[in-house]
Write a structure and sequence with these properties.
Layout lengths: L21 E12 L9 E12 L1 E3 L3 E10 L15 E10 L4 E6 L17 E6 L4 E16 L2 E9 L7 E6 L56 E2 L4 E6 L8 E12 L2 E7 L5 E2 L9 E11 L3 E6 L12 E2 L4 E5 L5 E14 L8 E9 L4 E5 L29 H14 L20
Parallel strand pairs: 3-10
Antiparallel strand pairs: 1-2, 1-9, 2-4, 4-7, 5-6, 5-8, 6-7, 8-9, 8-10, 11-13, 12-13, 12-21, 13-14, 14-19, 15-18, 16-17, 16-20, 20-21, 20-22
Length: 437
């Protein structure tokens, strides 16, 4: 399925400093956007841009230039809604007559964009220092669009596929102080700030601290007798491979604790505090974690545990902690059973009522957090025909992360859904998690 290119267009309303009133002109041009690996074929479309600049000025003036999207190259895809204030465009305008390039940047400001609705981006703005008398032409060129989701920032890169018409012309007169400066350099790189990769992920102090106790051998227990009911595990450093969605994966200590409940065990799985920095403001209920706990030793299979979604809204760049995940293990075998963290899944809900996006992360490396001396229970797990032990309440959805097809499907979602239909997306991974609660 081909991804629809994000209607990327830049824009802006500009005004000259000490110059004549701004003039603007629209120009149409074809662009090509290249999708990420597994995200489909490159997509081409036509866009209409309006470049605004003063009609005249003089050497030495610094004038405002803007680039506005009048008509996008395409609509949003039909895969997901785009959150409010998550799209930040950046464009480059060719400066003719003086040479160089002017970078213009838009604010990360947009209304919610429903599925299949026209893309909407803020006006991109920059400042141009005039250093040479004559006619200066401004022609829109390549542009990037960064879209920030709870699980990272994706950048679409698009470029013209043919000739582009001039967007605006400035008639530059000689300055009163005489002479040109810097031999006519246009100081092209000057912008009004704002890098395109919105939503920095370098926040989120882990403020960890190890989990409650747990012997070095992974909380070995004395079994069903002796009156012991609480079995603390030890923290295990786990590397999660999230495929193409999170390059580099996620690393965090994970601790599995157990409490005896009759012949079964109530499990609580903890990750780190301040697991990541939120790349954008998130509503309550946006992030819900789940995990598979792998059984070893005398028993086999998986226990599925899950945690509640965040109860409160999360401000932009604020530290985010995954909730504790709980579930029940009913032994199917008698003997020493090990419990190890396995696949982590985070369900991301962009807006109330929208379909959650499943981000599966396979445990590429893990270890035993807890060992229990169990007694088999009727109806417990462990038989050859069983794929796992009893599931926790709110069990983990099957995501297909174990097979390559599931990973590719997720990559496609992370490429189209992340929209920009087919563009190169650069994912900003969550920071390394440190410490446990």
């Amino acid at each position: 399925m081909s991804a629809a290119v994000i209607a990327l267009l830049l824009g802006g309303a500009g005004m000259a400093i000490g110059a004549t009133p701004a003039q603007a002109a629209e120009t149409k041009f074809n662009v090509k956007c290249v999708p990420p690996a597994g995200g489909g074929d490159p997509v081409e479309g036509e866009t209409t841009a309006k470049v605004t600049a003063p009609a005249s000025a003089k050497v030495g003036d610094e004038v405002d230039v803007s680039w506005e999207t009048v008509k996008p190259a395409s609509n949003n895809t039909d895969l997901m809604d785009i959150p409010q204030d998550s799209v930040q465009p950046t464009g480059w305008i060719t400066v003719g007559g003086g040479g160089g390039e002017l970078k213009v940047v838009g604010e990360k400001k947009n209304p919610p964009i429903p599925k299949k609705a026209p893309m909407q981006m803020s006006t991109m703005k920059g400042k141009l220092k005039l250093t040479k008398a004559g006619k200066i032409t401004l022609t829109p060129g390549k542009y990037d669009v960064a879209v920030t989701f709870p699980f990272g920032t994706f950048v679409t890169k698009c470029a013209p596929t043919g000739a582009v018409g001039v967007g605006a012309t400035i008639d530059v007169a000689a300055g009163t102080s005489g002479g040109t400066t810097n031999g006519g350099s246009t100081n092209g790189g000057s912008t009004n700030g704002g890098s395109t990769n919105g939503g920095s992920t370098n926040g989120g102090s882990a403020n960890g601290g190890s989990t409650s106790g747990g012997s070095a051998n992974g909380g070995s227990t004395s079994g069903g007798g002796g009156g012991q009911t609480d079995f603390p595990g030890k923290p295990v450093e786990v590397a999660f491979d999230c495929g193409p969605v999170v390059p580099g994966g996620i690393k965090t200590p994970v601790t599995i604790n157990a409490k005896k409940n009759g012949g079964s065990y109530d499990l609580t799985v903890k990750t780190a505090k301040g697991a990541m920095a939120s790349p954008m403001a998130l509503p309550a209920g946006a992030l819900k974690p789940s995990m598979n706990v792998k059984l070893g030793g005398a028993d086999s299979g998986m226990v599925k545990v899950s945690g509640p979604a965040n109860a409160e809204p999360i401000p932009d760049k604020a530290p985010v902690s995954l909730s504790d995940m709980t579930g029940t293990y009913k032994p199917g075998k008698t003997g020493k059973v090990t419990l190890s963290p396995d696949q982590l899944t985070i369900d991301v809900t962009m807006a109330p009522g929208s379909t959650p996006i499943n981000v599966p992360c396979k445990a590429a490396s893990s270890g035993v957090s807890l060992e229990l001396d169990t007694t088999a229970q009727e109806g417990g797990s462990g038989s050859p025909a069983t794929t796992g032990s009893t599931t926790a309440s709110g069990g983990l959805a099957e995501t297909g992360a174990e097979d390559e097809g599931g990973i590719k499907a997720l990559a496609l979602v992370a490429g189209t859904v992340i929209l920009l239909g087919g563009a190169v997306f650069t994912f900003t991974p969550w920071r390394r998690l440190r410490g446990t609660r």
